Backbone:
């Protein structure tokens, strides 16, 4: 992409092709012979990481689309069948979901790097603007992708974000109706979002080609911010940059794999494991972490239209950066003031993200306004002003000089920044969690056999839990995503196929119509799903005092509670994922005969210590001695609660054992591979010095 | 790329590069597997393909029914004496895909023909009781099957397949 190539193939076939379509020469000049500054640091590997992430998102996305159904009544279920039934479906889904977060994580680093080293300055303005366009497209794509699982957060996120456009005077309402294809978010909305979510990544890929093209015309910027002058300043893209990028990629994959295999729900919202319900809004609508700073800006402006304008301007202002910062020196390394303000700006962004996950009340509103002002002030006041008043330190004469002047200590700031960034990332994630929590008794953390990197389900506990479900819970709660055949699946309760079939035949399942056109009942088969106790929602409500007993298939992942700072940062490293089980277990044991003094309960409610708001419609479900176990386990409420919770965790994630097992293998491989890449990189670069 | 520094330890350097390359290849291939494997039938599809039982009592002599198993139509014909005789009187050696009628039905249940109703040419569904042999006629490209479901005429290369099945009782079969 940098003009005609001098590449001359010697193979006659390649020669024949090259004369007609000089594609090999194009690749050669762009990705082999292409000169790259020799002083690039590891922040520059994020370009390669982003290319990989885009490719990975497209590939996993295309595969998921083969199994996904974009229809309002089936979307949620189809995602669950991907995770439960499709071969490696859980892996592909985790890759795609965590991949979106990783993509944004990498793009933020890439953007901050560009900001710090002045990569948007002459002659790279268009390169930078193309980057801003890619970022905007990514946000749109990510948003629409989040809607597709059609959980509660999907639905209400879609409602809130599309309603932003209703702020536009006069035509706002019509635009929103146009976006929805209906009078509210519904099936037509889901359908078009799916279509666009499939389309936009390819548009991104197209703009990425332009981005890379512009990059190869202007040449890469570098930490010194001086342009290469002689051949001594550059090295060939391959092998030098390639190998360095690949090492960066392999380290990034380690980080990525941690989420895929060990923390798949860390960045997600438990609320999204509840199917979309147009009649109930979740207590706190929190977007995905990567939108939080802009969400905070939106909320800190009291006027609807002004808030929306501020939010969009916060992104669009980036496109004007080349003309807001007119300082001649590119790299902040040589700009003592700009450097300090850069880091202040980073902190402002992180804090905005943290605020985005907080409820908009009290001190948070004021903080939000101050930070919003600071965000814009950085671009509109600080940068233009600094361009005029700051005296930069002298820049090196050439890149070669910069390399020679460097000592071996350059790795230290990188490491500390990485740690700072991880903490910041965790802060975002944690704040999203925070917002969810009510004032609520924190369930005690139990010891679960399935916790941690080597966790496995306790078979006995699963079997007892199934018994408790069958004899107690199933009177009111469905388990509609579990089929009887699952009881014989590896990593499950450990029944044989014959035992599962016998278990199934105890149930009466409705089938039909038969040749006479009538529905009939027959004994259950392994392929049947657990029948639900009520034919429909209305019947369930009538039988339960107006409350709807939730389906339990996903309950262990759909419930959570606040972990608080700094606990959620530690959770990331200790792989704590057991909020759901802790909550369910605590709830089952949290009933109290009489509410504490001064608390009055509404008619038909019971007092539960751990239920948000404490007034629960479900009467105390478990009592000592209610279920007898064949294996001699104690017939106590504590034991019942523990077993049924274990069972429900398995029901929510039947492939957890496979996930952790594969995760271990992947980690062993990736650590070895990253090590090999490191030494290979060192060897290759030894020749360059 | 051979420079003085690397010439000092040529074997070590080569080993490192080969090991890294090999690890990358192994990792790449292993990553590819889930993407291929996901194309196979998923667990619910496999479970839905479990054996089915069919009651034969309602099928009168000379009639046939079509049931579905694993998404395929299965013809169950209650053959008349005449049809059985027809099937058994042709010299086996004259058939394009030589097979005796006895080999295509269960012993003691000669009147029941159970075949997969998918033309072995290109997968259309043949029509029962049609064609020159009182068996099956495929409208797509004119293949003709006899009362034993054997190919007699037309482009189809082989006889209609017999699915795995057995008699659970005299009037009930299990397919699969
Ligand atoms: S498909 Fe039946 S004859 Fe061609």
Residues:
């Amino acid at each position: 992409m940098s003009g005609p190539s001098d590449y001359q193939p010697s193979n006659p076939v390649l020669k024949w092709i090259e004369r007609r379509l000089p594609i090999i020469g194009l690749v050669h000049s762009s990705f082999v012979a292409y000169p790259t500054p020799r002083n690039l640091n590891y922040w520059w590997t994020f370009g390669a990481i982003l290319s990989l992430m885009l490719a990975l998102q497209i590939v996993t996305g295309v595969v998921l689309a083969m199994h996904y159904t974009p229809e309002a009544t089936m979307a949620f279920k189809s995602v669950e069948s991907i995770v439960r039934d499709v071969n490696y479906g859980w892996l592909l889904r985790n890759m795609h979901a965590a991949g979106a977060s990783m993509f944004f994580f990498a793009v933020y680093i890439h953007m901050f790097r560009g900001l710090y080293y002045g990569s948007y300055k002459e002659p790279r303005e268009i390169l930078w603007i193309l980057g801003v366009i890619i970022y905007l497209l990514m946000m749109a794509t990510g948003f629409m992708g989040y809607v597709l699982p059609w959980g509660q957060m999907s639905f209400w996120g879609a409602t809130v974000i599309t309603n932003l456009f209703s702020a536009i005077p006069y035509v706002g309402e019509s635009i929103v109706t146009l976006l929805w294809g209906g009078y509210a978010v519904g099936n037509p909305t889901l359908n078009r979002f799916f279509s666009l979510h499939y389309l936009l990544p390819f548009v991104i890929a197209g703009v990425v080609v332009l981005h890379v093209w512009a990059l190869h015309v202007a040449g890469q910027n570098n930490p010194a911010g001086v342009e290469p002058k002689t051949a001594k300043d550059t090295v060939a893209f391959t092998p030098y940059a390639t190998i360095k990028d690949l090492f960066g990629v392999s380290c990034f994959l380690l980080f990525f794999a941690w989420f895929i295999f060990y923390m798949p729900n860390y960045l997600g919202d438990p609320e999204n494991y509840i199917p979309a319900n147009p009649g109930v809004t979740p207590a706190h609508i929190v977007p995905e972490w990567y939108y939080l700073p802009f969400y905070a800006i939106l909320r800190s402006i009291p006027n609807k239209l002004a808030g929306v304008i501020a939010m969009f301007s916060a992104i669009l202002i980036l496109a004007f950066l080349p003309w807001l910062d007119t300082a001649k020196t590119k790299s902040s390394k040589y700009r003592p003031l700009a450097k300090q303000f850069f880091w202040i700006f980073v902190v402002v962004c992180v804090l905005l993200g943290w605020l985005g996950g907080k409820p908009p009340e009290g001190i948070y509103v004021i903080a939000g306004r101050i930070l919003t002002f600071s965000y814009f002030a950085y671009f509109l006041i600080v940068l233009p002003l600094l361009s005029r008043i700051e005296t930069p330190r002298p820049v090196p004469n050439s890149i070669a000089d910069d390399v020679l002047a460097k000592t071996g200590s350059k790795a230290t700031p990188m490491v500390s920044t990485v740690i700072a960034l991880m903490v910041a990332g965790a802060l975002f994630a944690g704040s999203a969690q925070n917002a969810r929590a009510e004032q609520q008794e924190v369930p005690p953390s139990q010891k679960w056999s399935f916790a941690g990197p080597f966790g496995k389900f306790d078979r006995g506990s699963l079997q007892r839990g199934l018994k408790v479900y069958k004899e107690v819970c199933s009177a009111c709660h469905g388990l509609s995503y579990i089929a009887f055949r699952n009881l014989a699946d590896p990593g499950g309760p450990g029944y044989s196929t014959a035992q599962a079939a016998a278990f199934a035949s105890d149930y009466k399942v409705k089938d039909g119509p038969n040749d006479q056109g009538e529905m009939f009942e027959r004994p259950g088969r392994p392929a049947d799903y657990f029948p639900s106790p009520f034919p429909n929602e209305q019947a369930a409500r009538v039988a339960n005092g107006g409350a709807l007993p939730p389906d339990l298939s996903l309950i262990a992942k759909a419930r959570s509670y606040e972990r608080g700072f700094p606990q959620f940062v530690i959770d990331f490293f200790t792989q704590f994922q057991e909020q759901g089980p802790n909550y369910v277990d605590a709830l089952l044991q949290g009933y109290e005969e009489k509410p504490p003094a001064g608390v009055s309960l509404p008619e038909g409610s019971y007092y539960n210590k751990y239920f948000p708001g404490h007034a629960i419609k479900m009467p105390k479900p478990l009592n000592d001695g209610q279920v007898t176990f064949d294996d001699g386990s104690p017939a106590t409420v504590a034991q019942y609660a523990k077993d049924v919770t274990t069972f429900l965790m398995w029901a929510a994630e039947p492939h957890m054992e496979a996930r952790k097992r594969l995760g271990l293998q992947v980690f062993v491989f990736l650590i070895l591979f990253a090590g090999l890449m490191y030494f290979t990189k060192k060897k290759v670069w030894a020749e360059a010095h | 790329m051979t420079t003085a520094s690397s010439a000092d330890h040529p074997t070590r350097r080569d080993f490192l590069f080969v090991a890294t390359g090999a690890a990358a290849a192994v990792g790449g291939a292993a990553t590819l597997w889930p993407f291929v494997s996901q194309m196979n039938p998923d667990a619910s599809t496999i479970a839905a393909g479990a054996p089915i039982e069919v009651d034969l009592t309602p099928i009168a002599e000379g009639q046939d029914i079509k049931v579905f198993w694993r998404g395929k139509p299965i013809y169950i014909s209650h053959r008349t004496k005449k049809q059985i005789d027809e099937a058994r009187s042709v010299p086996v050696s004259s058939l394009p895909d030589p097979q005796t009628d006895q080999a295509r039905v269960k012993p003691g249940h000669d009147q029941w023909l159970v075949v997969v109703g998918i033309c072995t040419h290109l997968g259309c569904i043949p029509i029962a009781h049609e064609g020159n042999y009182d068996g099956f006629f495929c409208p797509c490209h004119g293949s003709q099957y006899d009362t034993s479901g054997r190919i007699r005429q037309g482009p189809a290369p082989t006889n209609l397949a017999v699915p795995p099945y057995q008699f659970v009782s005299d009037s009930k079969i299990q397919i699969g």
In short: Chain A has a mean pLDDT of 91.
